[in-house]
Amino acid sequence: MIGLMSAPDIERRVLHSAFFAFTQATLGFWLVNGLSEAEEWRRAGETGGWIRALTLEGTSNAVILALFYPVALLERRYPAAPGRWLTALPVHLVASLAFSIIHVLSMWTLRAGLWPILFDRSYGFESMMNQFFYEYRKDLLSYAVILAILAVMRAREEALQSAAAARTDARRDHVVTLRCGGRELRLPAAEILSASAAGNYVEVRTASGVHLARTTLAALEDMLAAAKADPVRLHRSHLAARSAVREITPKSDGDAEARLADGLVLPVSRRYRAGV
User: Is residue 169 included in any domain, yes or no?
Assistant: First the structure.
């Protein structure tokens, strides 16, 4: 299978998409936490607390966003991936401590500068230092969320690249590439007779047997079409090669049944019947 993007290009896309997702999550936490804290102060009799609450949360979230890229660059060198945890975990535990120290000191600096301007008062440093371990627990969660988002986005990007490469292979070589367990199976598109959805998998039938592939029916249909195999959708859960359909039997409810070259009978829903 050919690769469509270089590793640096993929990592750049992962970085950008992960930062965008983390920014959206951070903005959500900022609004929820800030407004919740403001509501607590309002119930305690304080007026105008929403500005201070949003500023309080905003200074913290702004620093965490600024720390995203250093964490991402470290994660690229020490990925928290299966098989690499023994090396990566100690590095990230130490890094999470540095992350928290920088976060606490930076947000205090911001607050110390903003409080006299916005609220005509100073911001106390001592109380924050006394709560460092409380802050560290929250920062450890933020650090873990960054690692998780990077892992999810990398898996998503690799899946997109794999699907694009599979379509290219289908167009060029008329071969359908399937992931079956730990194997990568390459089948000539002309050998595939039918396929049926099976939860998160698809049962792909050929004259020689059935293969359980980790894909979707729509993705398989796309690859078969790219390979010029002329797939036809019979039902939302079933498709077949048009050349494999031997007989269509109408049913009284408007649906039908299709008998294939290997003797298998599959349902044909009225939605797809006209195209068979």
Answer: no
Q: What is the DSSP string of 186-219?
A: EEEGGGEEEEEEETTEEEEEETTEEEEESS-HHH
Nearest in space to 267 (alpha carbons), one of 253, 276, 255, 254: 255
Q: How many domains does the chain have?
A: 2
Section 9-30 average pLDDT: 92
156 and 180 both lie in a single domain: no
Task: Looking at the structure, tell me whether residues 82 and 206 fall in a common domain.
Answer: no
Q: Count CB atoms within 10 A of the CB of residue 168.
A: 16
For residues 79 and 107, the answer to whether their CB atoms sit within 8 Å is no
CA distance 240 to 224: 10
Q: Which domain holds residue 15?
A: 7-164
Region 101-117: mean pLDDT is 92
Rounded percentage of the chain residues whose pLDDT exceeds 70: 94
Q: Are residues 211 and 117 in the same domain?
A: no
* Residues 260 and 151 occupy one common structural domain: no
pLDDT digits over 62-85, tens only?
999 999 999 999 999 998 777 787
Q: Are 158 and 181 in the same domain?
A: no
Residue type, 210: V
Residue that terminates a domain, selected from 141, 164, 187: 164
Mind listing the pLDDT tens digit for each residue in 215-229? 899 999 999 999 999
> CA-to-CA distance for 62 and 107, rounded, in angstroms?
8
The model carries a pTM of 0.72
Does pLDDT of 257 surpass 80? yes
**How far apart are the C-alpha atoms of 13 and 10, rounded to whole Å?**
5
- Cβ-based burial of 172 (10 A; exposed 0-12, middle 13-18, buried ≥19): exposed
